[in-house]
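Agenda item 2: NAP complex prediction
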Amino acid sequence: MNRASTAVVTGATSGIGEAIARGLAAGGTTVILVGRSDQRLDQARRRILAAVPGADLRPERADLSLLADVRALAERLVARHPLPDVVISNAAVIAEVDDTTTEGIQRTLATNHLAPYLLLRLLAGPLGDRPARFVVVGASPSALARVPVDLDDLGCASGRGLGPLPSLRPFTCYGRTKNMNAMFVYGLARRLEGTRITVNGVHPGIIKGTGLGRGSRGALRLLGAALSPFQPGPDTGADTPVWLATSPEVDGITGRFFVRRTQAATAPHTTDPTRCDRLWEESARLVGLSPTMATHSAA
Ligand SMILES: NC(=O)c1ccc[n+]([C@@H]2O[C@H](COP(=O)([O-])OP(=O)(O)OC[C@H]3O[C@@H](n4cnc5c(N)ncnc54)[C@H](OP(=O)(O)O)[C@@H]3O)[C@@H](O)[C@H]2O)c1
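Presented output:
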């Protein structure tokens, strides 16, 4: 694959997601921009058009913290022609630990893990034996090695193991969902074997000029402000995701995690098949899908 025909980018209204959308649009791809606010979608569309005149951009509003919105988004994407040949799951938040959605799910868990879990599973079936690439934006494998997913408490409700500093607990909860991203990539790739859909994870780098953590209080916010002069911007963060979505160099590569266009190992607690299966099954229960996936072999 040299150029995607139609790509879906979640969290395209800001930061790395907007840069990914701009990068794909510059290569001639039709980009479906997914965001939760019509106004921010329109602003992002205008900024991308200013940088890439004539870009083919299709805004789709969905609040990805809500399973109902994710399902409705998947239905609209499946009804469109052509089906997307690239889906980049990039949207994420760092919400307060006690922040639950109207569906009763902790917001960081719902947005960062359950949304891509549900969306990619709902798209994989209709894609059938068509070629497609799924890319899941995770985070730094080395930093995340210290925050294994608590499989008995995906939404961090017990507060167990979140650390002594209350202002950093949302970040630990976020880190666990980013480990779930890698575990989901490995579990999904295994279940998509025999199809022409690949799925890979990526750490975009530590990137300044994005909105991540803007809703957070205290130490996390200060940390972000202190580090920012030394960090690259969103275009650098978009580089590996766009490469994974379009480059012939990664044709057929699946179930891997990348940092700076290079395969990287993630912590053993993310690769353990028993742990990955437990996460898969509990996620299926939370989103209301069967743990078993029906796929179409390309053979
Ligand atoms: N920046 C870094 O240093 C860094 C490091 C490691 C990993 N990452 C990862 O990179 C990805 C992008 O992060 P970023 O730094 O670019 O942050 P960002 O600027 O805050 O972008 C996050 C995007 O997600 C969207 N989003 C959040 N909640 C949503 C919801 N409920 N429904 C729909 N969209 C929602 C946001 O939309 P709104 O515009 O409506 O808020 C925004 O467009 C994330 O997966 C993050 O974990 C970033």
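Discussion summary: The CA atoms of residues 15 and 211 lie 6 Å apart.
Owner for follow-up: CH.
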